[in-house]
């Protein structure tokens, strides 16, 4: 029986494939990684499609890099505004 990779192993493999380590990503870098606007990201978060943001302070949010890499590598073909290349 083939053992399926755990979500933590998948995340670690993605980080290694991109030559990265786990870290928090702020808005400007999130936009560069996902190519989604802030309003589209908020909409997808509400729908449970985009990874949830982490609140760091009163006016400060970030996302886990591995969450974003997993999101863009899932390649949801029906997702409008999603760069599938």
Automatic annotation (TrEMBL):
This is Transcriptional regulator. InterPro entries: AlpA. Pfam families: Phage_AlpA. It comes from the Bacteria.
